[in-house]
Fold these 2 entries.
Entry 1:
Amino acid sequence: MRRLIICEKSHAARRIALILSDGSYKRRSIAGTPVMDFNRNSDSYTILGLRGHVIELDYPKEYNDWEGTPPKKLVSIEPVKSVNPSATKIMRALREAASKSDEIIIATDYDREGELIGVEAIEHLETDVPLRRARFSALTKAEIEQAFSNLADVDLRLATAAETRQYIDLAWGASLTRFMSLASGQRGSDFLSVGRVQTPTLALVVARERAIAEFTPTPYWLVTADLRKDSVSFSASHAHGRFEAREEAHAAAVKARRQKKANVKDVEEKDAQEYPPPPFSTTIFLAEVTKRGLSAATAMKVAEDLYTDGYISYPRTDNTVYPMSLSLRNILEKLRKSDFAKEAEEVLSQEKIRPSRGRTSTTDHPPIHPVEGATKSELKGARWTVYELIARRFLATLAPVCEVRRTKMALDIGDEPFEAEGYKIVSPGWRKYYPYYRVNETILPVSSVGDSAEALKIQSAEKKTKPPARYSQGTLIQEMEKHGLGTKSTRHEALQKLIDRRFLKGQRIEPTESGVAMVSALENHARLHDEYKITDAKMTAHLEMEMDLIARGEREQPDVLEESQAMLEDIIDVLERNRKEIGDDIRKALRKQRSLGKCPKCDTGELVEIRTKGGDSFAGCSSYPECRNTYPLPRGLLVLPGDATCEVCSAPKIKTVAKGQSPVVLCIDPKCSDAKKQRYIGKCPECGGDITTIQSKKGKRFAGCTNYPDCKKIFPLPQRGKIVPTDEICDECKAPIIKVWQQKNRAPWVLCINMDCPKKEKKGGKTKGDAEGKRKSE
DNA sequence: GCAAGGTC
């Protein structure tokens, strides 16, 4: 018999061919698509890898005209299926291979989408060749052999469930996207999108922002003591913890201050173990890698490249438990030929390697791990950042526990009870290989009961409770996972969409004006019952339930679709009735979002950024042509509203941001003394003019003389950090001296801006800042 | 020019 096996992706096809043929398969190409042939138990096999979903769902072309199709009409239009353009060659190969087969075996991933990926490809062929299904939960020899000797039937109900999801996602997404875009006059590339995953994700951020706005800080007081014993300085805090009343805290502090001595009442030492972190699932990986400054979308792209190039395993996984079939020692051996040779050696030298494990165990793919050793010179930049993180995480998950010693000291100061806590790493274990978490060691002086310490200072300090923190890309993706929004493969894409379409902004993510307006409009108008609120993550949960019912045969697709369509039509009716209000609200939000501030000349218009054809941009008044007020804007920089007016000339302030630099807030009018002051660095050593910061076309900053072109003096500047002039000049070369703040809580770097200054030769390097800054553990 | 889900 001639059998054709189809897999979800080429990688899986190769792996299955290897297992079933014991390595004896032959490669061949059909219509430019690689396939593999082999013989097994008197049958001949051909195996081919698809490229995920090869069939696309969309509305017929005649409905592409947004203005000409009422959004509500879209709901009941039957979408058509077509071959994804990137898969035409694969489909040609599939058709040819199928025509020469007596049986087709679908061997796609064993999940709902996998079932549909196989079924849709075969349905498109309209072939009568009998169909079987191989179900395996891992690409291991045991699983694959077992699946192919127990071939099952295709589960059409499961595939239908996935197909229903497609129909519903398209109907809701397309009709609501069109409605919102048209109602607010956003056509072309500026359309406003709505979707089952992206909109509830946006709503999560809006909800967080509201919680932050509504938050009222509650004051509380902490009483702390600076102590010293045997020339070791340490601090203790009042055993009461937070005082809610100022008087109580003060009273405690005053009482304690009567004594200049702290008496040790109790010392408790405890050895504890800190366990290694769990292996990387996609979500955990993204949470960690985004802390290193990459966006989730960039990090995934880099990880996919590293996977394709054979450096790391498949990066899309929910699994946090290494499967038994994975040879951890083999991987460590590979790492011996990498920049982590020493580390791998150490981990290998353990008598027994006990990998850490997370809560989620799935069988589709192992946790993300390196599969090949690499060096920094081989990978470079972001590729190295990602590879290093994955390699180090892998080493950490196999490394010993971190042994720590915690000390608790109880003290009395003037009859007031205080506590001091010590924390010391005895043996770093996994922390040695995974140095990304900062830890704060606190050493207490060796003490026993009855000892005393000098009480240097007792203070009562007012603190305030803090509002919930904004999400980062990493924590938002974790939150999405918690709410069942999106999948391991799509969460970063949904997030990136919200950023690209300007619904979300910032490193600490906040919604834009239009983001808030979208959510408010949909919350107020696009709801019928609580379980069908498009802004609510519960909508996904509800859909999941319906899909399960279809898969179990307890509901039929037409029923579910009809119900969903009726609901959507009702929602669109409500939206249409409020069309003007919704449109006005969003338009207003967009205008505010784009505004750099009120025009100081006419006081009615808003200043908005306008790009010229040449690539330059300027700020112009929205009341043009009545008001022709304009200001040039710096090139190569992101220009944002400064949310303030200039104290000098009452024009709005703008915030300019260059990649990697701290933002600068300055008056929009470059001729205003405030703008000049913000850019001022010092006096020109050549002509006595002003040296100011200037941005190059590409956004790099440097310092140059304002007497240009008469004086062409320029100096390079550090690209990172906030620059503050000092009024001082270098005693050697007379160039201005500046301070550069490159990190919070670190002393600034003080330097003469002249890179060729003879003094630099003598001293060399930069002045090291104060490294004693407060460190927070993560 | 719309979604979300696969994969590259």
Note: The domain at 219-275+403-464 of chain A is CATH 2.70.20.10 (Topoisomerase I; domain 3).
Entry 2:
Amino acid sequence: MRADRIFCDLDTAALQAFETIKYATAYPKGAVLFVEGQAPRGIFVLCKGRVKLSICATDGKTLILKIAEPGEVLGLSATVSGKPYELTAETIDPCQVNFVKREDFLRFLKEHSDACFKVAEQLSDKYNNACHEVRSLGLSHSAGEKLAKLLLEWSSRNGESAKVEPRLKLALTHEEIAQMIGTSRETVTRLFADLKKRQIVQSKGSTLLIRNKAALKTLATNG
Amino acid sequence: MRADRIFCDLDTAALQAFETIKYATAYPKGAVLFVEGQAPRGIFVLCKGRVKLSICATDGKTLILKIAEPGEVLGLSATVSGKPYELTAETIDPCQVNFVKREDFLRFLKEHSDACFKVAEQLSDKYNNACHEVRSLGLSHSAGEKLAKLLLEWSSRNGESAKVEPRLKLALTHEEIAQMIGTSRETVTRLFADLKKRQIVQSKGSTLLIRNKAALKTLATNG
DNA sequence: AACTTGTTGTGATACGGCTCACAAATTGAT
DNA sequence: ATCAATTTGTGAGCCGTATCACAACAAGTT
């Protein structure tokens, strides 16, 4: 319920102020919170559900940057800088969201310096992630390398990372996975086929079992 | 001299505080301010000269993210978040830099909320740029498209953008340009040859004349 | 059970761009 | 002016992967 972690450990005055300016809202699956290029209306604190963050080229080609989880603040940098949203946010589950209007939020930041500092930290994190994305995209990892990285990252989220043979749910289609690593759907299908043939992974329904984590790590680091 | 623009329009108290914690330093050409992966020592406010910001893969492949100009604050997000520097900063001119130690800077931010807000804005900008980079890398623009974009961006910096046939100095080698758009040196050479053959650009020494801006723009937008 | 719709598996083909290997042209030192 | 070092120009070949075109499933509908 209280998943707006970022603004949680503020002093009570700030917390109260935040309560008065936030709008608790609910969105169905598939709702669009904002679209890249739009003028920033405000921030969205994700409390429940997942949100797909993506950028999209004029020709329809899409790159999924990340699947945001509860606790994340969306639209923060655009709201702070006043520049257009740099990406598109679309719910992929029913979501609960706290929305704060831009003017309210900016006033809130100026009046509560500890919140402002938290925001700076948050923005640093986002920048950090973006840099990782740039690294993975720019230093031309092969598609196979990027898929291996993605699978390892996913397995580390589910608390399954410690296990020798981590298990994970593939909640995304090959098409979406392709959009996450910047390749085509067919390539993803072929890569999975290859991983299975080489006994590195094994799938039962939508569950994927990593049978050879070491091999996957090798793939993730060496071309 | 007073090129640390970001912290310029603060109240006098903050300004004074900043003066006491900054170290004015000078670096020769080729000096390394920080390396990706290092623990953050503090921020570097670039006052004079240019700094090359890059990330580097284990195999030596390098991607130049940007050439920072005076006024830019380097190492900001790492210093705020405490995570390692996410890129490498190396001077390509003799540079004058104001350095502020991490602890001093964090204290400064907590004591001067307007500075903190400025930092949040600055970080938003950086995040924005990173997103653009992601877009240009991820949505697989062809090498030609990216080069066209780069040339247009450069011509718009020199105040030459208004002119019908902007002129610009190519201060970088083909190799470095290749590292900026994530391709190989040979490809850059071939692309330039092609642009010249098609009368879109023309070069005299290290000066490049854009003869057909419209064509270049077409290249930059349509694959 | 028959159909529609969305996903996945797989071949054939084509192309962009990387690599390798030199040659030609600059640039800078002495 | 000469020589070394760097940068640029260009060909040939190769590899990864995008694209196209279907076939094989799966899941839900009526």
Note: Chain A has a mean pLDDT of 91.
